[in-house]
Write a structure and sequence with these properties.
single chain; 199 residues; mainly alpha; Cytochrome Bc1 Complex, Chain C; Cytochrome_b_N_euk/bac; transmembrane helix
Length: 199
Amino acid sequence: YDWFQERLEIQDIADDFSTKYVPPHVNIFYCLGGITLVCFLIQFATGFAMTFYYKPTVAEAYSSVQYLMSDVSFGWLIRSVHRWSASMMVLMLILHVFRVYLTGGFKRPRELTWVTGVTMAVITVSFGVTGYSLPWDQVGYWAVKIVSGVPAAIPVVGDFMVELLRGGESVGQSTLTRFYSLHTSVMPWLLAVFMLMHF
């Protein structure tokens, strides 16, 4: 203990935490942001574990998910926890937004915290859209086809945005690759950066 105390001053940190009082207006609803963070960490860990077995190809995506669910030890549990935690993360995020709005937590001087929070909400929903497609079953395929076609209604740039999302004119391997890359590489780090700004 003394060795760590000399280098890290653990006791000072512990004293700082233990001597601060919780304000009287704070209640259990102030934990919703922290619960959302815990859900994200669970998502990160279980998602990372699934990358060892998932094959992001049109031909093998569905069978790799089936293999994970039926043949990999505890694969069914890892995927199920990932899905449950995703649903819980969205629910906790919605409740957190309501709590912040109802208590006026978005007002000056916390406007930037609110903006980063709204950005994280958009990223979280995007996680759901991209993750939903990865098993490449009928539900995932048609969800991608519909969602990626929505920007076509935007004047001037709509068709370009659809082609950018799909990686071509139609939904296929390029679409799955893009959604997989967004889901596993781009969005987790983007969300982590916005979380640091949010804290």
